[in-house]
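Q: Can someone sanity-check these two? First one:
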Amino acid sequence: MPATVPVGCVKSQPDLPSRQQPTQTTTTTNSDARARTRRGLVERDTEFTRLGSRLRSIRESRHLTLATVSEASGISISTLSRLESGSRRPHLDLLLPLARVYRLTLDDLVDAPALGDPRIRPRPRVREGVVTVPLSGGDGPWEAFKQVHPPAPDADIRQWVHQGWDWIYVISGRMRLLLADDDLMVEAGAAVEFDTRVPHGFSNPGPGVLEVLCLFNAAGARLHTRAVGEDDRLVSG
């Protein structure tokens, strides 16, 4: 009889050998840090110069002098000149008055890139009666999807192993989870979280439809890479 999991979260992690991290000398570390700092300063100066040129172009396109903009914005002429030359950090308290003077949004003033449409338009797919609905764009560090499983009380549960972590929340129905040697029954409203290097698999024991919400990281997004019990052969998920 499978053990019942109460509403909450189950965590499991195998006892795996720790990986010894390679050592680096202090000299190499300091050199890398200085190189990163130099790259950051160059990128910053380039961005300041680009923004300064844009501010100058906006002012000149409106046939305004530095003195006119200074009087309208309350920003000194010397500060405006340094902003346009890229030698002054463009703080928000300087950009907001300029946006009002030029009657532009802040995004238009600094030529911020468009964010694009954040809405996800999932395309459900069906495989062996299981409906999978992707809920993320696939570009981030985590993938999200919803699955709907029909009742399959007699189905054999195949266990898988792959890198990463899985997080599963049961929206409705019941989920039978095999996690290594543990046989668990997860009820609606409960969540489980586990290292996917542990052999795992789940099914819907019925009697109703099982709906789950799943999250996995970039490694887990590659899905199943090694089947348990098949001579450790690599298989595609």
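And here is the second, same format, sequence then tokens:
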Amino acid sequence: MTFKISATLPTVPAKDFAATVQFFKNLGFVNQYKDQERSGGYAVMQYHELVFHLFAYKKLAVPTPTNIVLVIVENVDDLQTTLQKNFQESTGKKISRSGLPKMSLPRDLNSDRRFTLTDPNGNYFIFAQSHEKKTTTEMTRLEKLYKESNTLAYSHESPREAIQMMTRALAKSNLATESDWVIFQAYVLLADMYALEEDEPQSFDYLQQAENQLKQLSTIDRTSDSYQYYQKLQNKKEH
């Protein structure tokens, strides 16, 4: 016997139902369930092909730690830019990268490029665009630990753990034998994670180290995530 499954739809809770629906509307979603009988405590939120259900749950402990929705897309950078633009046009401000709600910037990981969106309840949406998995067979220990720290930082959203792993890796490495570019990336990651932790002195310190490291590079990939993050952090520092 065979079965035909027409759709699989994630369903996530909301403690403040009205505020959560409005949050997604600000991003450009439409509530397709608003005229139905249970619309006061239930919603079907849609943005193009993305559809998920939302239900009221006033006893929800915020942030909820386990509700994760993975969405595979083909244009992850454009989507993040559009969602941020929609939100800013609706509210007059950007979504923060920390606190609740929050949205990260797109970032390359080992097997995909992704950003994350966390709603006011802690429901966690991962938007990912697949790419060819990168090999680690010829990497130095620092390179491998940088990539693991990168995953902790931008996939697991665990800045404190990423800081601990990256600082230990730098302390135990002979930086004279390491790639100047990898060291630059490590400093930028630490500057960004301390910025998310709202530790401005530490963030500025690693940003200065990244700036010093940048001067050692003969060529700079200005399209890379690390350089783009470096520029954003420099702009934030100056303003």
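A (reply): Looked at the second one. Strands lie at 11-14, 30-31, 42-47, 50-56, 68-72, 102-103, 107-108, 112-118, 124-130. Helices lie at 17-27, 76-91, 141-154, 159-171, 180-196, 200-214, 225-238.
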